[in-house]
Amino acid sequence: MGYVDKRGREMMMVNTDNPLHTPDLDPMYISIPFFILLSPKKPAIGFFINSTSYSFFKINDDTYTISVKDEGIEIYAIYGPKIDDVITHFTGMVGRMEMPPAWSIGYQQSRWSYSTDEEALDVARRMRKDSIPCDVLYLDIDYMDGYRVFTWGKNFPDPKKFVSEMKEIGFKVVTIVDPGVKIDENYAVYKSGKSIDAFVKDRYGKEFTGYVWPGKCSFPDFLRPDVREWWSTSHKVLFDAGVEGIWNDMNEPAIVWTDAQMDKVKNILGKGEINFQLLGEAKAVFAQEDHGDEIIHKDENGERWPHYKVRNIYAYLEAIATSRAFELYRPGKRPFLLTRAGFAGIQKYAAVWTGDNSSWWEHLEAEIAISIGLGLSGVSFTGTDVGGFGGNSNGELLARWTEMGVFFPFFRNHSAIGTVHQEPWAFGEKIEKIIKKYITLRYELFPHMYTAFHSAHENGVPIMRPLFFIDQDNPDLYSINDEFLFGDSLLIAPITKPNTMWRSVYIPKGRWIDMRNGKIYEEDHVYKIDAPLDEIPIFVKENSMIFRTDPMNYIFEKEKMTLYVDVYGQEGRGYLYEDDGETLEYKKGGYNLYEFAVGSDMKGYTLSFKAKHHGYAGRYEKITMNFINAPRKIANINLNGKKVNAYFDGNILKVEFEIKDAT
Ligand code: MIG
């Protein structure tokens, strides 16, 4: 937790499920022992501690203390000089994200839980009825049979039929998978795990057990390849039903109670059964306890590893097993995995969400710095529970959070059991309209966003960035935690407080143009910017291009798509990437990369449009280029050397051509 600038903080790398996110909270779900030193007029330098064991960081102004509970520590110093170079080099070592399935960039709806097939279908149908774009619906723990992982419970009597009904209306289904396996001699997954001795042990060689949702559980030892293979094949029952994505939760790993704790809380809980209403109370009985020495893992050579040395890669190894499951049961298709815990490099296998926040304004704002921090650490595909997980959301908060969530790489609304519902329509028509407007904008920006994901795949530079990426020599930008950049050219200034219709916005180097009205703002100034409830301030960097398409109910709803290229300024260059969004063909050249360039002089504009790479049939057909703030007197427009037609529509100069006009 806390701001992007970590000076004055102490941080611990021990993957932990710590659900009450206070500003000083540490440790959290994910451990990436990496930080970047940045000061004006000096090269940025990254430090990566290559140990999966527990490590501790104390960051003062001029002293950085690093302690690692390990022998033979490797520390890498990674020279920039630019901050993005540091991240490119770092992700060159630990890995970068693959291209995600295109649908995973769409809006996603979740809730703990949509617990029957009818309830889930109703939510999906309502999205379509109200024309709120949405691609994904999540099934939280209640789809299972008594929380037994890799089963379907009685509320989903025909999962295959359910998933295919969802598919018919353009929805993908993602199911949660927790690592705890219920100890139950009549349960196939426990039995098959047991038959290969799959579970972690305590130091006396007995199976380590702990209580999670299903009751008493054992935990797979993902260190062993054969255990990972067993885990991969256990996914068959989900993929057979047509599930398209997996959601890994509780994989720090988290247990709700140890056996000893269970004895103590039995009286709070009643008959030793888990009652969610009493959970908070029971959990509070225990401070964080460290079982690092008591649990033993074994690798394939029989070597014993104390838990503390491998805890931080437990989720990472689970992610490897899950990605193998995708290869087995959805060959040739891109995997989609969402995870809570992880280690440096987790982005190769999974998107990361920031866990159990609350429906508080403070958390809406706090999520900006958290996701920026993940991005600086190499994880590009990040997002938060839009609307807040714990506690009751409200219309204004959900509207503001959705406006902001549009510009987080991962965009999912999720909330906890026992809280008020927070689907887009939950707070009445006025709020629903605002939410719909912004989810629709997300889909209109798909061409732009997909291209940004491709850059993250290519060079590891985060999609969501702090303002100091624009000018790392300006220390004023180091402390801005309530504005952020999406890619190279969008600056987002969300409203993070209730009943607030304006805010001050710091405009960094360059000139930036308000997307709502074309107003131009000058560099290194603070402006008072209006933002009524149905508007979030978005600024576009001068001389850049924003790529849009028509609204759609879900990604690739239509075979062919129109492309809009909005040109902010009188010159510039922009790139657009596209591929089939589904298969791995892009790795073999199955993609298109277009370059748009604009130059201008007294007489008019000169445009060039090139296909830098053409390896995919493509969905874009017609192109409209919109010149925002074009001078009225423009008469002459050339595209690739030939005169083209142009006209004014209000203040916007429009030029039309087609994809086939590319040279
Ligand atoms: O401690 O599966 O962060 O998203 O809804 C609760 C139930 C366990 C924690 C996850 C949350 C999910 C919830 N899980």
UniProtKB/TrEMBL annotation:
Domain DUF5110: start-end pairs: 563-629
Matching Pfam families: DUF5110 (PF17137), Gal_mutarotas_2 (PF13802), Glyco_hydro_31_2nd (PF01055), Glyco_hydro_31_3rd (PF21365)
Segments forming domain Glycoside hydrolase family 31 TIM barrel: 98-452
Gene Ontology terms describing biological process: carbohydrate metabolic process
Alphabetically ordered keywords of this record: Glycosidase, Hydrolase
GO terms assigned for molecular function: carbohydrate binding; hydrolase activity, hydrolyzing O-glycosyl compounds
Domain Glycosyl hydrolase family 31 C-terminal: 460-546
Glycoside hydrolase family 31 N-terminal domain residues: 2-57
Domain of life: Bacteria
Family to which this protein belongs: Belongs to the glycosyl hydrolase 31 family.
Annotated protein name in UniProt: DUF5110 domain-containing protein
Species: Mesoaciditoga lauensis
